[in-house]
Amino acid sequence: MPIMVDVAIIGGGPAGLNAALVLGRARKSVVVIDERLPRNRVTRESHGFLSRDGISPRELRRIAMEQIKAYPAVQFVEDIAETITGTDGDFQITTSQATTYRSKKLLFTVGMKDIPLGIDGLTDVYGTSAFICPYCDGWELRDQRLVLIVHGEKAIHLAKSLAGWTDQYTICTNGPDEWTNEQREEIKLHNIQVFEDAIQRIESSEGMVQSVVLEDGTVIPCTGIFFAPKLVTGSDLPQALGCNTTDAGIVIVDEFGKTNIPGIYSAGDVASELHLVITAASLGALAGLSINGELLSEVWNSKK
Fold first, then answer.
1. For residue 10, what are the β-bridge partners?
2. Using an 8 Å Cβ cutoff, are 213 and 200 in contact?
């Protein structure tokens, strides 16, 4: 028999967990379906989250789940949502373990996944001395000698952002820079050294970057790396259900996480380009508030 809940949350990161907290406190029955393979599992510390600065992602999740257990209407399931059918008020979710859930509302907090960049040695340093977000890890690499692996408009944006933490950085575009002449002049104006040659490998010791080696033999010493990741959404289910998305796969939502499909919401990294832990959590809370409000309105209006 299907397991009946008010809300099924697909994804158990900060957005999904905060939504579950809000809904659990609102006395709504919730199932959080998550495969427990978060994108930030390679990261030792999370930053910028008030009262939890420097905590490991694993510990943040453990504390959150422990606190949410105070609300018995919320259940956590280590599983993968494979298929979803139905419409607003009666969605049917079937998981990889052949369990079926029926829910009135759906919330996708599936996050994003990294596509390997194909750079030898990057995996060895990712999350230890190679990062993607200056606001998350710039402080730890302040005043250090860095390499930025990025090209195009993102390179300009990243260079501007990092200027607040260090002015000792080199840009490796790992191929054509894809800049306009105006952008090249802007980079020259700030005396930023640029290499377009392909990267052969990243040399490191115990996760700490030592240098970036180019195909032409150039060795660029550094103690840290920031790079632009290639991302895909954590699940294709929102698109399969008809949710509107951007070209980058971001689910388009309103200010409270509502998609174009009645009864379906989305929050966190999959519904925003602001990939910060605290942002994901706050968006999850807003989605939880909106879902609860919709459920309450439906009951209220049914008695007219």
1. 33, 108
2. yes
As a whole number of angstroms, the distance between CA 26 and CA 66 comes to 18
* Three-point CA angle 9, 15, 20, nearest 5°: 50
Note whether 194 and 183 are within 8 A (CB): no
For 146-192, write each residue's pLDDT tens digit: 999 999 999 999 999 999 999 999 999 999 999 999 999 999 999 99
- Other beta carbons less than 10 A from residue 120's beta carbon: 12
DSSP state of 271: G
- The pLDDT of residue 6 is 98
pLDDT, tens digit (0-9, with 9 covering 90-100), for 204-222: 999 999 999 999 999 999 9
What is d(CA 14, CA 17) in angstroms, rounded to the nearest whole number? 5
| Whole-angstrom distance, CA of residue 287 vs CA of residue 284 | 5
Angle, alpha carbons 3-15-36 (nearest 5°): 65
pTM value > 0.90: yes
CB 199 within 8 A of CB 174: yes
Q: How many helices (H) and strands (E) does the chain have?
A: 8, 17
Which tokens belong to 168? Answer: 């000792």
**Contacts of 180 by beta carbon, 8 Å cutoff, 6+ apart:** none
Q: Between the CA atoms of 244, 248, 250 and 253, what dihedral angle is there, to the nearest 10 degrees? A: -50
Smallest CA-to-CA distance from 64 within 32, 95, 28, 39 is with 32
Mean pLDDT, the chain, whole residue set: 96
Cα distances (angstroms) measured from residue 46 to each of 42, 81, 278: 11, 27, 10
Contacts of residue 281, defined as CB under 8 A and 6 or more positions apart, other chains included, come to 14, 15, 17, 18, 49
